[in-house]
Every structure is written in structure tokens, then in C-alpha cells.
């Protein structure tokens, strides 16, 4: 018995399927380029065993625990720490029982494909997970996690990861990256500069974060010029530590291009903490333009992740804090929102701005036409809710005719769930090869061209776009 159909995600038509399989066989063993994700660098610095199956598969994965919460389980029952004190953490085995008893909820979802891939390809389990096999799974996985071959660095090597980029706060000292660089292991893990917590004035700790930014950079972050200088200093530090990119997660794609005097005036309002929601949004928009300006100076690739309506549940946010699965896609206007930035930098062929979206309606209407003409713009792959068979397929169908393949950047997995990395890349490679096979079989692409594109989508484009 196998958990995985060898022809999964390939076209049903025999001729098209045969072309897809040929293309896939050429790229399936390529090294993984993971240029954007949320794995913890501490895993690889300390190289200690993952504590238990629930902490490897359930508690770090938004896709998993949000589905369970949708069926009435609390985050506390799933081992997600509450911000309130005196909360008892459930036993890992109890968390796993909830997960295995409810594994049927993931039928037809990308999570099931990723999980089954991990269970079979990584851990060697071929029987389905359910209520009856849950105990077996937990014990088997726990035994495996106690073996040296399942330590983080060993798995990194086995997954054939050539390079992995983490996402790191602007006020992180990158101590774990420093330790990785000093160890004898040759795995390549690099940071990414994420300044959201010192750019978004609506965050509770914004002023304290500015103080920390000042301490780390040696600049006066309570003056506009000093604040910008602090960002430049931290970006330089990240670059010395191997970073090739920045990342910006904003509610909207809004950008601004204020004069220096206007920006200074706005910054004073922000510091005085008497700003409106509109002024906070203007400030975030101005900082995207400032970050683009700095990327022109230091060469760091700029990623913009916009359109997530984060922390939709106030109760969950108040009890558990940020990033607990209650983040919902929202409508996003890229044409209007990005115009101030693009008026300034859009024609700069030496700048790379990678756009991600959670609003699929913008693929053909906005994103593909913009990436298809502005030299600075590239399209990031389907993200978060859309890194799936249907999501990737729709992305290719909606964008390729307008901006081609070479104004996109391949695939990145954007995950906190370490064992899902090879599974997600396998899905992307299969879906892309299926799409290319359709082009071949309908006379829109020669087979030798499809082979080249398959290679680029799986490996070459990400490596090039992120300067890796």
C-alpha cells in the first residue's frame, strides 16, 4: 500500500500525462531553492531533535490547526501557547489524537498531499493516518525523531535543499545564523530583512522596537534621518550575514512618495502617537518606497506580501497573539496602490520587486500586465491559501499569456512546517509540468522549450531572481 499515487496531479489524458511525466522526471531531483520561508534558524544552529510529532506537524502549521479550530477545537487544546499565564499545555500525545481522529478533514486539500508525502517519503509510513492508526503513528514518528538521521541538519541534507532563507525581524541580532556560519556543517541558511515591526506604527510595541533598532544600529531612530540611517545600517548587517532580500507584509499594497519635509512631518505625528489609521497607512506606504530606494542602493531584492487581513478574530489575537491562523485574504488594488513607487522606480532594470497576492482576481487584471511591462516587477508564486494544485494552475493560466514565465520567480514554499518543504516543491513541480504538457500538446510550446521552462520554474528562476 502507498499513500501517494505516482501520477498525482498529472493530466488524465494519456498523451498529455506522458509528456508531463517526462518533464517531471527531468526536474524532480533538482536541488530545492527555498528563498522565502519561516523555518526557525535555531533548529539548525542547535541541531537538537524535534521534541515530538505534534510539535513537528501540528503546532507550527497554520494549515493544520486552523482546520481543526474550524471544527470546534481550541488553540489551547492544540498546544498553541496562550498569552495568558497559568495555562496548562496538553500532552503531545493528546494533541496528536485530536489530529489523527480528525485527519479526514484534510481530504482533498493540499495539506493532505503534503502530509502524506512527509509520512511516506520522509518517515517511511505507508498506512493511512486515522483514529485506528494514530497511536502507531505517534510511537513510530517519535522513535524516528530520536534517530540521528532525523535531526534538523540531516533532514536538510536529505531534502536536497541547496539554500534556505529564513524571515527575520529587523531587530534580530541573528545569533542563530551566526552560530550556523561558525559550525562545521555546510548547509546554507541565510536571513531575510523583515522590518514590519519597526515600520507599522499600529503595532503595540512599535516605540519599544524603535528603541531597540536604535541600540542595534547606533542611530537616532527618533529623528527621520536617523530612522532611515538605522534601516540602512541593519540592512547592511543582514547583507553581511548572507541576506539577499527584504520582505514586507502590509495590509495593502499602498505606496507613497512624500517629499522629505512631508515625511519628516508625518514621522513626528507617528512618534507623538496621535495619528489616525489613514496616517498609519500613509506611513507604511511611504516606507515601502523608502525600502525600494534602499534596494536601489544595496541591491537587496524586495518582496511585498500584501492583502492579508491579519488577526481577524480579536478574541484569538487577545488570548494568543499574532499569527495564529486567523488571517484572511482581502481585496487588493495594485494598479493604483503601487503607482507612486513605480513612478519613481518601476523602470529601474537593476531593481527587483517581487509581488505576492492573496487576491486571485488581480492575476490577469493587474499583476500580469504590470509585471509584463515594468522592468522592476516580478510575480511571486501563489502564496499561502493558493500554493496548491488549483492555485498554481490558475496562476499559470491567468498570468502566462500576459507576462510569460520569465517575469515570475519560480516557486517558494513560505512554510513554518519543515517537513513539508520537499512535499510543497514536489507539488509545484508536478503542477507546472502538467501545465507545460498542456501547452506542448496544444501546439503552443515545443517539447525542448518545455524542458527548459520546467528547469527554470523548478530551480533557475528562483536562484536568479533572489541572486542566490
Keywords:
468 residues; TIM Barrel; uronate isomerase, domain 2, chain A; 4-stranded parallel β-sheet
Helices and strands, with pairings:
Blueprint lengths: L13 H14 L4 E3 L6 H6 L6 H5 L4 H8 L22 H10 L8 H13 L11 H12 L6 H7 L2 E5 L2 E2 L5 H8 L6 E2 L2 E2 L11 H12 L6 H17 L4 E6 L9 H13 L4 H22 L2 E6 L1 E2 L4 H7 L7 E2 L4 H4 L1 H7 L7 E5 L4 H10 L5 E3 L9 H15 L17 H21 L5 H19 L3
Parallel strand pairs: 1-2, 2-4, 3-5, 6-7, 7-10, 10-11
Antiparallel strand pairs: 8-9
Helix pairs in contact: 1-19, 1-20, 6-19, 10-11, 12-13, 13-16, 17-18, 18-19, 19-20
Task: Give a structural overview.
By secondary structure, the chain is of the alpha/beta class. The protein folds into 2 domains: 14-49 and 152-465, Alpha-Beta Barrel (TIM Barrel), CATH 3.20.20.140; 50-150, uronate isomerase, domain 2, chain A (Orthogonal Bundle). Helices cover 49% and strands 8% of the residues. It contains 20 helices and 11 strands. It has helices at 14-27, 41-46, 53-57, 62-69, 92-101, 110-122, 134-145, 152-158, 175-182, 206-217, 224-240, 260-272, 277-298, 314-320, 334-337, 339-345, 362-371, 389-403, 421-441, 447-465, and strands spanning 32-34, 161-165, 168-169, 189-190, 193-194, 245-250, 301-306, 308-309, 328-329, 353-357, 377-379. It has a 4-stranded parallel sheet, covered by helices on one side. Strand 10 (353-357), helix 17 and strand 11 (377-379) form a beta-alpha-beta unit. The two termini are 40 Å apart. The mean pLDDT is 95.
Amino acid at each position: 500500500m502507498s499513500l501517494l499515487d505516482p501520477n498525482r496531479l498529472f493530466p488524465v489524458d494519456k498523451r498529455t500525462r506522458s509528456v508531463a511525466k517526462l518533464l517531471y522526471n527531468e526536474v524532480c531531483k533538482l536541488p530545492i531553492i527555498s528563498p522565502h520561508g519561516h523555518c526557525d534558524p535555531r533548529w539548525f544552529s542547535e541541531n537538537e531533535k524535534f521534541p515530538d510529532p505534534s510539535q513537528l506537524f501540528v503546532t507550527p502549521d497554520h494549515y493544520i490547526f486552523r482546520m481543526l479550530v474550524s471544527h470546534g477545537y481550541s488553540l489551547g487544546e492544540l498546544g498553541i501557547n496562550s498569552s495568558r499565564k497559568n495555562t496548562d499545555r496538553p500532552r503531545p500525545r493528546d494533541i496528536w489524537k485530536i489530529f489523527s481522529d480528525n485527519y479526514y478533514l484534510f481530504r482533498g486539500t493540499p495539506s493532505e498531499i503534503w502530509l502524506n508525502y512527509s509520512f511516506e517519503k520522509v518517515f517511511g509510513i505507508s498506512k493511512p493516518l486515522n483514529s485506528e492508526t494514530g497511536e502507531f503513528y505517534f510511537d513510530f514518528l517519535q522513535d524516528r525523531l530520536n534517530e540521528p538521521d532525523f535531526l534538523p541538519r540531516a533532514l536538510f541534507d536529505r531534502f536536497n535543499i541547496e539554500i534556505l532563507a529564513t524571515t527575520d525581524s529587523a531587530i534580530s541580532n541573528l545569533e542563530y545564523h551566526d552560530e550556523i556560519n561558525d559550525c562545521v556543517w555546510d548547509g546554507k541558511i541565510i536571513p531575510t530583512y523583515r522590518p514590519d515591526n519597526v515600520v507599522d506604527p499600529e503595532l503595540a510595541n512599535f516605540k519599544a522596537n524603535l528603541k531597540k533598532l536604535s541600540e542595534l544600529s547606533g542611530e537616532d531612530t527618533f529623528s527621520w534621518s536617523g530612522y532611515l540611517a538605522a534601516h540602512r545600517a541593519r540592512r547592511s548587517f543582514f547583507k553581511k550575514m548572507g541576506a539577499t532580500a527584504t520582505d514586507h507584509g502590509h495590509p495593502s499594497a499602498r505606496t507613497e512618495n512624500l517629499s522629505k519635509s512631508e515625511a519628516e512631518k508625518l514621522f513626528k505625528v507617528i512618534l507623538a502617537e496621535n495619528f489616525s489609521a489613514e496616517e498609519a497607512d500613509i506611513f507604511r506606504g511611504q516606507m515601502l518606497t523608502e525600502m525600494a530606494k534602499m534596494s536601489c542602493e544595496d541591491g537587496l531584492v524586495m518582496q511585498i506580501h500584501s492583502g492579508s487581513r491579519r488577526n481577524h478574530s480579536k478574541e484569538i489575537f487577545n488570548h494568543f497573539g499574532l499569527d495564529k491562523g486567523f488571517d484572511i485574504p482581502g481585496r487588493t488594488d495594485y494598479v493604483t496602490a503601487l503607482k507612486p513607487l513605480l513612478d519613481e522606480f518601476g523602470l529601474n532594470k537593476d531593481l527587483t520587486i517581487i509581488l505576492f497576492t492573496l487576491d486571485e482576481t488581480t492575476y490577469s487584471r493587474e499583476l500580469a500586465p504590470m509585471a509584463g511591462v515594468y522592468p522592476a516587477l516580478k510575480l511571486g508564486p501563489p502564496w499561502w491559501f493558493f500554493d496548491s494544485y488549483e492555485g498554481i494552475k490558475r496562476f499559470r493560466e491567468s498570468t502566462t499569456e500576459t507576462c510569460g514565465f520569465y517575469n515570475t520567480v519560480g516557486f517558494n514554499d513560505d512554510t513554518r512546517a519543515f517537513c513539508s518543504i520537499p512535499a510543497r516543491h514536489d507539488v509545484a513541480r508536478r503542477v507546472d509540468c502538467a501545465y507545460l504538457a498542456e501547452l506542448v500538446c496544444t501546439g503552443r510550446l515545443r517539447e525542448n522549450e518545455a524542458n527548459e521552462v520546467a528547469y527554470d520554474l523548478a530551480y533557475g528562476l528562483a536562484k536568479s531572481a533572489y541572486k542566490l
